Amino acid sequence: MSHTTDPTPRNFVLCSGEHRVCFSTALGLLGALIGGIASILLPLNIATAAAMPTPNVPEIAARGYLLQDFNSGQIIAEKNSREQMEPASLTKLMTAHIVFSELRAGNLQLNSEVLISEKAWRMGGSRMFVEVNKRVSVENLLKGMIIQSGNDASVALAEHVAGSEEAFASLMNHHAEKLGMRSTHFVNSTGMPDSNHYTTAHDLALLTKALISEFPEYYKWYSIKEFTYNDIRQHNRNTLLWRDKYVDGVKTGHTDSAGFCLISSALRDDMRLISVVLGTKSKEARAKESQKLLNYGFRFFETRQLYSANSQLTTSRIWKGASEQLPLGIADDLYITIPRGRYDKLDASMKIDSHITAPTTKGSQHGIVDISLEGETIVERPLIALQGIEEGSLLQRLSDEFSLLFE
At 120, phi and psi to the nearest 5? Predict the structure, then answer.
């Protein structure tokens, strides 16, 4: 028979069949005996500000947009976020991601010199003004692409990595598939218009999150406000770097067909947001609409870390094993993004498989952690074994087999 050790178990539920342990964040640490084994979930920090009403998303003058929390991945606001659109120079985020990957793999060095081809030199649009048949370091080309949005720098890097821009585009599509960018296809490294070159706000947010999380040592270059090459000084086109001290990247884009686009990211009080705005009418509009989204997200939402990766949340009885207790937790840090002031309305529950039998491997799933806000599930995560448990001795297996007859 299952029972609880807490004398006043408010909001605590045990369900028949699969074991289910529910608890309110207001209770703090709560223990339950499930099949005779203590099951304890880590307490949540319940300090919270007063709840405030959450207004509708402000009107955003763009063809499509998306506002997402970096840590939780939760989408706060969106419009046409999965509609395919031209990315213009936002394409260069993927070009950078591939070059950063090559640097990390040791296939390139920042001081490696790149021979500038005639094709790269002849590129129109925004340029860093490299000269044909001259050699330029990978670092300078990256900064020319990131800060000055140089099409010439993008092509030079693509040719150096893959031999040709066409071959590099195949690499771009391969990386896009690995990142889950299901509605994206690239044909060049720059974002120059082409009917087969497209993406979505949703996919661009995935790419941006990957770039920030995987390459923090290079992401900081997106906050540099100006860069000088060949005695030509050019400013970063992301004007939010001057207007908002919390903004630290990432990229602008523009063609006549794509309109004016901006991906921006800002970090305030350990909360990072990613904003993707596509198809506005001017440089000023892309900055203004992006700022509106960021302000809305920071003003009316908050992100909290509930649990850490590989930390024990509970234990469960495991049968016929070398040990009788199986520690359970989650594989990744668990963050949630909710309207401000509603943290104390959260509930978390665990549904644990009944009759877990050895052997089991580290990382195998044995239940679910469910986070709900006022009765509605907002996050679910697999509850996994934090260690493997081998089969027990013959005597242990026979003893447990007998005990299971009475379960």
Answer: -60, -45
Q: What is the pLDDT along the chain (407 residues), one digit of tens a residue?
A: 232 222 222 232 323 234 444 433 333 333 333 333 333 344 455 555 566 788 999 999 999 999 999 999 999 999 999 999 999 999 999 999 999 999 999 999 999 999 999 999 999 999 999 999 999 999 999 999 999 999 999 999 999 999 999 999 999 999 999 999 999 999 999 999 999 999 999 999 999 999 999 999 999 999 999 999 999 999 999 999 999 999 999 999 999 999 999 999 999 999 999 999 999 999 999 999 999 999 999 999 999 999 999 999 999 988 888 898 999 999 999 999 999 999 999 999 999 998 888 899 999 999 999 999 988 999 999 999 999 998 877 777 677 576 767 77
Can you give the CATH number for the domain in which 122 is found? 3.40.710.10
Same domain flag for 106 and 31? no
DSSP string, 15-58: -SSSEEEEEEGGG-SEEEEETTEEEEEPPP----PPP---PPPP
**CB of 403 closer than 8 Å to CB of 396:** no
Backbone angles phi, psi at 275, to 5 degrees: -115, 130
- Does 110 lie in the same domain as 221? yes
Total structural domains within the chain: 2
Lookup: tokens for 217: 């040592």
| Same domain assignment for residues 232 and 327 | no
Tokens for 227, please give them.
């860069």
Q: Which of 135, 133, 137 shows the shortest CA–CA distance to 122?
A: 133
Same domain, 233 and 364: no
Active-site residue set: 89, 92, 149
- Find the domain containing 337 and state its range: 3-42+311-404
Distances (CA, A) of 406 to 38, 206, 318, 400, 401: 20, 50, 15, 10, 10
Instruction: Report d(CA 304, CA 197) in Å as an integer.
Output: 37
The one-letter code for the residue type at 226 is E
* Sign of the dihedral through C-alpha 139, 145, 146, 148: positive
Is residue 153 situated within a structural domain? Answer: yes
Query: Is residue 76, in this structure, part of any structural domain at all?
Result: no
What are the E-state strand segments in 144-243?
226-229, 232-235
Tokens at residue 387, please? 């260690």
Q: How far apart are CA 93 and CA 88, in angstroms?
A: 11
Give the H/E segment covering residue 72: none
The answer for 325, left when phi > 0, alpha when psi is -120 to 50, beta otherwise, is beta
